[in-house]
Structure formats: structure tokens, C-alpha cells
Amino acid sequence: MSQILSTVACNLDNNLLAACLPLMEAAQIEAIEWSFDALYAVEKVPSWFEELLTVFSDENRLIGHGVFFSLFSGRWLPEQQQWLDHLKAVSRRYRFDHVTEHFGFMTGRDFHHGAPLNIPYTPVTLEIGRDRLKRMQDACGCPVGLENLAFSYSLEEVKKHGDFLNELLEPVNGFIILDLHNLYCQTHNFNLTFEELNKLYPLHRVREIHISGGSWEISGATPGKTVRRDTHDDAVPEEVFAYLDKAIDLCPSLKYVVLEQLGTGLDTEDSRIAFGSDFLRMDELIKNKNKTAAPLNNFLSEALPVAAQAREDESLYQQQLELSQILETATSFEALMKALHASSLAHSAWQIESWDPAMIETAAKIAQKWKRKDVIL
Questions:
Q1: Gyration radius from the chain CA atoms
Q2: Exposure of 116 by Cβ count < 10 A (0-12 exposed, 13-18 middle, 19+ buried)?
Q3: Please, is 89 exposed, middle or buried when counting C-beta atoms within 10 Å of its C-beta (0-12, 13-18, 19+)?
């Protein structure tokens, strides 16, 4: 019989590893999620970290989480092929039970200094996303999935996201990471309830759940409004634990619940103790609910043919470059809005006319933050 596994996002970060060590020593961590593409700047991976990955891999309790593939880039780029080649090599060395990636496209020309942002939900982006998922599946040879968004430009986007994910994943029998802090961001930023949001998602496709913390930001574009950001730098809010209590019962194929936090938020002993407390609370909640029935779906799929030529759309790519440039270089909200409405995105499938001003402002802050430094989620 299958059980839900208490998991941590464990990467090569001293603060994060220090927080995880007591839990590992007590054999309380049942699986680890590794951002396999986050070591691009590391010349040599320590042998002890490789041994850690091997231990969980040998028990089929290692899952891979990508950051930098840029699934919806309108042009097939050399960096994407390099990413796939790396995934294929890593998948030969370690056994991933599944591999996931973020939804969206990476701003900027250098993926490692770009932000993952949303795309218009059109037949073109649907076909591009399906093409990329087939290539991921071909490279790793295991189930593949995508994480739901924390960020949207409008309420209409929020309402369409779940259906688009379902259409996108169906050909590869793919699954969803239901990030509950991402839902928490959406409930606050668009004045929704958890119940309203979960009805918008194909919960039968959820194989993995993420919980994490984040931060608040006062909007300059909309006086009196605060925006919830998925910054992964604080403890898990009470509301997210409440969501987890409900979500486990709603996801019949759930296998992993993952606690995430960036090492930058674990730089004190108190913060590392709080991380451990969050994990134990998550683990207790899972143990009290742990299922005895096998998952409804194991998300395995027959090998699908991969086209020799990747799907592309040059118009989409140019709009993505234009949006990236606007967001990354805007010096004021007024300049940002002026540039957007003078761009090729105006009166297009992007529907920028309906974007929430506070979320446009937030998109610029996200893009400019990622441009300044590497941010690993």
C-alpha cells in the first residue's frame, strides 16, 4: 500500500542543510526534492552530497524539481537543449521517481538571472507547452509535472489556470504540484477563498504538494493594498497548514508533501528551529491522515514521439523579450505602464488592459530582483 511521504526540498545550501540535519539524523525525512539544475555555478559537487542523493535515489525517494527550463519560451533556445541534456545525464546517474518544472517563461536572455512569469493561455502556448513536456519526459524517462502559479496578472488568469494545466498535462499523463502557499498568494491577492480556488484545479492530477512561507509587500500602484509574495524566506503560515489539512483529503493521487524554504531565510538558529517545527507539524498531519489505498494514478505514460523540430512561435518570443525588457528596466510605475501600452502586447492575447496594477508592479519587482541575483526556488 502507498503512503504519503514527508519530504523536504533539499539543495546544496549550508543553512538549509543545517536545518535539515537534525531531521535526517532522526530519520524523519522520508524523501527529498532536489533542484537538479541549481548547481550550474558549482564547479564540483561534494561527494557527501552525492552520497545523500544516492541514498534516497536507491530507495526510489528522490524527486527532481527544475527551475530554469523556461517551458513556454516562444523560441527553442540552446539553453533549453542544454537543460534537457543535463536532465538526461542526471537521470542516468540518479533514479527520480518523478521530475517537475515551474510554469511560465523565464524573463531575460540569461535564464539564470530571469524570473518565471505567466503567459497568455492560447492554442499556441498550449502546443508549445505540450511539446516541451514531451521532451522532458523523453529525457528523464519518468512521470513529469508542473507547479501551479503563485503569480497572476488578473483574476481571469487565475480562473483559467487550472483548466489550462489540465489540457497541457493530459497528453503525457502529467501531474500537478499543488503549491499551497501559491494558492495562499492567490486567495489574498485576488480576494478568493481556498474553496473557490481548489474548485478551479484538476485535483485528481495532484501527486505532490508544496508548503512554504513568504512575505508581504505594500503596493505603490494601488494605495492600501498589500501583495502576498511567494518568496520562500519565512515559516509556513497558519492558513497554509489549514489548507494542507483540507487538501490531503481532496487529492486521491497524492504521494509527496514537501516543505520548502530558501537558505537565506534560515540564517539564524531560531529560523532553523522553526523550520524543524514546521516539518514535524507537517509530518504529524500527514501521519494522522495517511492513506492505505494505492494512488488513483501513478502518472506513468508510454514513450511518446518527440518531433525533430521543437514547436516555436516567433511573435510570442518577441513579445516575451519585449515584456522582459519593460519589466526589468522600468524606473517607475508610470514609465512601466506607458511602455506596456505602447508595446506589441497592447490589444493582444496577453490582455494587458485587464491586468491588475498592483500585480504589474509586482511583476517588475520580481523581474528586477531575479536580474540582480540568482534565486533558487
A1: 20
A2: buried
A3: exposed
* Band of pLDDT at residue 100, cut at 50, 70 and 90: very high
CA distance 21 to 357: 43
List phi, psi (to 5°) of 64. -105, 140
Task: Please state, in angstroms and rounded to a whole number, the distance separating the CA atoms of residues 371 and 377.
Answer: 15
- Would the pTM of this model clear 0.85, i.e. be above it? yes
Please tell me the distance from the alpha carbon of residue 343 to that of residue 113, in angstroms, as a whole number: 23
For residue 96 the three cell numbers come to: 527520480
Nearest-angstrom CA–CA distance, 181 and 184: 5
Alpha helix locations (H) across the chain? 14-25, 47-58, 78-93, 123-140, 155-169, 180-189, 194-198, 238-250, 269-289, 314-329, 333-341, 357-372
d(CA 260, CA 253): 21
Residue at 313: amino acid letter: D
Spatial contact of 283 and 321, defined as CB atoms under 8 Å apart: no
pLDDT tens-digit series, residues 271-310: 999 999 999 999 999 999 876 566 778 999 888 999 999 9
